[in-house]
Design a protein that fits this description.
Blueprint (H helix, E strand, L loop, with lengths): L2 E3 L4 E3 L1 H14 L4 E2 L8 E2 L8 H4 L11 H5 L7 E2 L1 H14 L15 H17 L4 E2 L2
Antiparallel strand pairs: 1-2, 3-4, 5-6
Helix pairs in contact: 4-5
Amino acid sequence: MGLDVSHDAWHGAYSAFTRWRNRLAEAAGYEIAKIEGGGPPLILIDWGHIVEKNYYGEWDTTPTDPLILLIAHSDCDGMLTPEHASLVADRLTELLPLLPDEPEAGHIRNMRAKTQQFIDGCLLAAANGEQLEFA
């Protein structure tokens, strides 16, 4: 069991998705906090302004940094609109050269290749005017 994102954007473990987002956040300059007592590390964004519907891809105002659309997104439910998928693809394209391009253990295998796969899925959804679905 794990996360499947439509348009062949992502198929893999929830833990791998968390590691991937953390790596993207670090590449973008966000700090990551380790949680005392266990739990996955937390990307330090303004969580106080994130509301429940944002976790599922519903936003009244698009964040200044489109990466927040992905960082704040649920890892098992929701969608990105075609417009947001396009913005996320553009932002990930900017980050791509900052990611390692060597083999990794686990479900990710290669950070750049996995990111390119997500970019391709976002672009396909946006080009078709379809939502990128998380399940």
